[in-house]
């Protein structure tokens, strides 16, 4: 059964569930997922000229949210898990500005949503542009969208972006240091996303649409065959490109090399296996392609900033005490 609700009523449901506890301070607000919808939370962190929003929840039933025309604003978002929300999927990011039209979004039951949204003032972005330097055409289009026409652009989240997102979600600090750290990570993500926007703007004249489609097909092949992936030459043959064009195009379109994409994907699969607790660390290392547990542990620490055994133990504790994740979702 699907619940259909207006955007206004949907927002009110979340706002009514603000968690009034001592860990909520003037700069942070925790919205616990309404019991009628599911479990999890949305956490707002108010920074200087930036509102950071962390989505981390799962619905019991399909939910359709009908939005109405509005003024909108400048927002950059990163979908880490799940993906039906606003028709964006895990591994994608978006930048949008300007008014939005009536639309309907749907989130599926049982799908874990993990998303990071950065809302910022347009004037704050403009303040970085020197008076004597004209911004790139792509940035001009983004800025001019405000109040005139809607602007939305969706891209693949790069390995560098994923690394910064992991740092943000696992902030090790508290108080003032935490505020400064989170703000710096938000601006780093904004910078990476704008640079990606500039690159893809110039990319439009560098690769044919058919080439870009073949590169996305190559990514899908690696995703499906991550345990036994083809070589670069074999992958190029399967998608009908020469290995040089595939190598260069993969970096341009996906934002990283095919090798790095596969490494990050394997690490993410390992993380999910550790979360499920069906396997021990040694077994997970073997599944994701490491003959030595120590090599897997080193790779896991490089990507997620902690030892896999520590991570698995922390996830087991969260399952016993779900509220502990809501008290400090940024802690490592």
Automatic annotation (TrEMBL):
Record InterPro entries: Homeodomain-like_sf, HTH_AraC, HTH_AraC-typ_CS, PchR_regulatory_protein, Tscrpt_reg_AraC-type_HTH
Keywords: DNA-binding, Transcription, Transcription regulation
Transmembrane segments: none
Matching SMART domains: HTH_ARAC
Keyword DNA-binding: yes
Keyword Transcription assigned: yes
Taxonomic superkingdom: Bacteria
Domain HTH araC/xylS-type: 216-314
PANTHER family referenced in this protein's UniProt entry, alphabetically: REGULATORY PROTEIN PCHR
Protein's UniProt name: Helix-turn-helix transcriptional regulator
Organism: Gloeocapsopsis crepidinum LEGE 06123
């Amino acid at each position: 059964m699907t619940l259909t609700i207006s955007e206004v009523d949907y927002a009110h449901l979340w706002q009514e569930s603000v968690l009034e506890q001592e860990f909520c301070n003037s700069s942070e607000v925790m919205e616990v997922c309404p019991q009628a919808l599911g479990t999890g939370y949305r956490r707002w962190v108010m920074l200087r000229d930036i509102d950071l929003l962390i989505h981390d929840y799962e619905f019991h039933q399909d939910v359709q949210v009908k939005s109405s025309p509005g003024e909108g604003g400048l927002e950059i978002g990163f979908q880490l898990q799940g993906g039906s929300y606003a028709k964006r999927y895990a591994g994608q990011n978006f930048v949008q500005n300007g008014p939005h039209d009536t639309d309907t979004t749907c989130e599926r039951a049982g799908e874990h949503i993990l998303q990071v949204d950065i809302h910022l003032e347009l004037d704050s972005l403009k303040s970085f542009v020197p008076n004597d330097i004209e911004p790139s055409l792509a940035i001009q289009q983004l800025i001019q969208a405000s109040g005139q026409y809607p602007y939305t652009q969706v891209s693949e989240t790069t390995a560098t972006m994923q690394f910064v997102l992991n740092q943000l979600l696992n902030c090790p600090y508290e108080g003032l240091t935490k505020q400064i750290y989170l703000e710096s990570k938000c601006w780093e993500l904004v910078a990476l996303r704008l640079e990606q926007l500039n690159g893809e703007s110039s990319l439009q004249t560098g690769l044919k649409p058919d080439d870009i489609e073949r590169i996305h097909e190559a990514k899908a092949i690696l995703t499906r065959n991550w345990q036994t992936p083809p070589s670069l030459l074999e992958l190029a043959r399967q998608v009908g490109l020469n290995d040089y064009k595939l190598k260069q195009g993969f970096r341009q379109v996906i934002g990283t090399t095919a090798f790095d994409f596969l490494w990050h994907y394997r690490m993410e699969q390992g993380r999910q296996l550790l979360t499920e607790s069906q396997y021990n660390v040694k077994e997970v290392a073997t599944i994701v392609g490491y003959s030595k547990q120590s090599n897997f542990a080193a790779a896991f620490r490089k990507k997620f900033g902690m030892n896999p055994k520590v991570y698995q133990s922390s996830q087991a504790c969260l399952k016993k005490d779900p509220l502990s994740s809501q008290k400090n979702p940024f802690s490592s």
